[in-house]
Amino acid sequence: MWQRYFPRGLVYGLGIFAKPGVTGPRIRAVVGDQNDPAFLRELAEQEGPFDIVDDGSHVNEHVRTSYETLFPYVRPGGFYVIEDLHTAYWPESGGEMPPGSSATTTGPLKDLIDDLHRCELAEDDELPAGNHPSDISIYHNPAVLRKGIAHERGIPAWVQQRADQWIHPGRK
Fold first, then answer.
1. Partners of residue 147 on adjacent β-strands
2. Which residues, given as ranges, of the chain have pLDDT below 50?
3. What does pTM read for this prediction?
């Protein structure tokens, strides 16, 4: 599918077992564990940076491990796709209730949304170092995170001062 969707892309498929039937001129089948950060880092150092990463696994722990390890190796402007978010609530996939707990896939996504917008309140030295999503699109089951650098800062101080004066007349 990915070879047809990206007609000029080099596609790496990672699986825990060899898949000799997965072949093509631009297909590289790699055997490895998506939940092994050392393996993922080694792969990314050799083959990255990547334009797109599709996480693949439905196990919450694997999804978190892959994101934490591979997102730094996505090119600025590239995409990281987390699919099958509904498994965040399936105990057999390591999910749990209540929805959004930190042990699920959706919990860290909610934290990323907070980080995306906290620049409005953060001091310059508190802002993320550029290794974070600049866009987060969440759909029914997949999430697509675009890697960017949040070069936009919060509103300028003079705008905030004017707003405070308007809301609280006489306050300095």
1. 133
2. none
3. 0.77
